[in-house]
Every structure is written in C-alpha cells, then in structure tokens.
Amino acid sequence: MNPYKTRQEMEADEARLLAPFAQKSGESRGRQFPEPSHAYRTEFQRDRARIIHSRAFRRLEYKTQVFLNGTGDHLRTRLTHTIEVASISRTIARALRLNEDLAEAIALAHDLGHSPFGHSGEEMLAECMREHGGFEHNRQSLRVVELLEHPYPKFPGLNLTSEVREGLHKAQLSSLEAQVANLADEITYYSHDLDDAIDFDVLNFAQLEEVDVWKYAADSVRTRYPDLREPELHKLIIRDVIDRQVQDVVATSAEKIGSAEIQSRDDAGKQSALIRYSDELASANRALRKFLYQNVYYHPRVAEVNQRACEMLRRVFESYLLDPSRLGDAATRRIESEGLDRTVCDYIAGMTDRYLIEEYRKLE
Ligand code: MG
Question: Is there a domain that residue 301 lies in?
C-alpha cells in the first residue's frame, strides 16, 4: 500500500461515493494551459487552493459586504461572507452526494471580482464604465481568475479547471455543484444581512414580524426557548433561518433530481434549476428579498455612507484616467491590450475599501 493516499485513490473514492450526476474530478475537461496532475490532490482541490492563495482572495477581508468595512468588528465582510457561502455549499453538496470540492472552489471564487463598497460600489463602477462595456462583479470574478491574477510565469490567471470557471458564469450554470454554490450565496446573504442589520440597529423585531421567513423561525425558537432574550434570541432565529433554507433545498433538489430522472453529469447539465427551493420557500424568499431592499440596503445609515464612498470611487476613477502614470506596474502593462478605461476599472475593482479611501485622500 502507498505510504500516502494518492490522487488516483481519491478519484476512485469519488467514483464510488458520489452520485452518478456529480462532476467527478477525474472527468474534468481540464485547464486552458495543460499542467501535469498532482500526486495527492484532485484537480478541484488544487483549484480551491489556488483561489485561497490568490491576492484577490486576501483582499476580500477589507471589502464591504453591506455595512461599510470597518464599522463593526462582528459585521460580515466580503471574506466572511465568502467563507459562509463555502460552508453552506459544502453541506448541500455533501448531502446530495455531489462533488464538495468543486462546489467549495466555486463558492470561494464567486466574489473575487467584487468592487470595494459593496453593491453601491458596483453600481458606481458600472456607471463609470457605461460607454466602455460596463461592469458586473460576476463577470469580473472570471476576469480575476483568467487574467488579473498572475502567480505563474508561463500563463496569465490561475488556470482553473473549466468546471470551476463555468461555475462563475451565473447565466449558464452547467453543473449541479455550480447551482449549489449559487443558491448557497443567496441563503448566506439572506440570513447574514438580517443578522447584521439587527446588530447594526437598522432593523427591529416589530418590523421583522411581517417577514414570513423570520416569523417561521422566530415562532419555532420561542416555542423551544420561551425565556430567551436578546442578543441570544436573534442569533438562534438566524440559525433556524439557515437550517430551514438548507433542509428545504436538500429535500426539494433531491426530489427534483429523482423525478427528472437525472442519471449522469450530462443529463444534469441540460436542465437548469434542479437545485432549488420548494415553491413555498421560494415565494417567502422573494418577500424577504423585497423587505431587505426596502429596509436595509437603502436604509439611510447604510445608503448615505455608501453614497459618500461611491463619490470617492468616481473621483479616483477619473483621476486615473487623467493621470495613468499613477497606476501600478501590472496595470500599466495591461493598458495596451485592455484599453485605459478597462484597465482603470480592473484596478479600482480590485481595491479594498481602505486603499480606495487612501487614494482619494491623496487627491485632496
Ligand atoms: Mg456573494
């Protein structure tokens, strides 16, 4: 017997343990630039490591999720959001006998292209790029892994497998693992945005009683723990919200996959939305999403700070267009192939909130 577990043994485990419709790492369509395979890591495990070791991944720590980065030590950042998405993706993938490593790698990479200052930052960057091809964070995540990261001397990007890269195309999710990561992203932000909004005092319990997803979990927690008070109460309710969502997705998806008679990875690729909520929860989630937009994302304490931050983003963007010599070396080398506007957009999209604020201060 080998002194260590080989990649071939791990691939054999996948063939034995995973569902017939899971994406097996040994059947990957491979990488754009061929590389020798590894002795004791599968292709998707390597992808996961490449993503975690990227510079863009480390910068997620200092990027806003919803509440401006640095305003509270317990509020989610883009990094902690990403780690929660990866955790929920793994739970769902494993329960459905899908490839956990693939779902996790997609989840870890899904927000690499996010701009500073959350969704307001994304909107402002899209506005700055209106005449030059626009900006959208999912597309940018692909640019990060295919072009902007450059740890290897022989090719640009992280040279990820085509299954992980396809998982970042939100419009055409070809594997069930990609659909899992996509839905896990939603489950994660529904629950943590409620949690953070309560911690940040922009939501109170009375408002939340109107929200079915909240009320369902709150009633159940109050029945089990009638004496529980804040802050423990809302933490437990959030836990229940996540648990209901995950259980619903696992049960509903298992049933859908069964009734659609999905037998192989190719069958799964031909059908969209096999990984899904029950109709009842999907409609409750739509109401929750609407509630979050009305009461959290555009709450003055959230929107006003983000608006000020976005104004900085616009000023910094314009300043680089006027004086490209202030761009970093790697960005300067891309001007010729990508054009100045796109190069500035890539540069700014990659910035952390605090770096952008520093750059803004230099202009004053
Ligand atoms: Mg996300």
Answer: yes
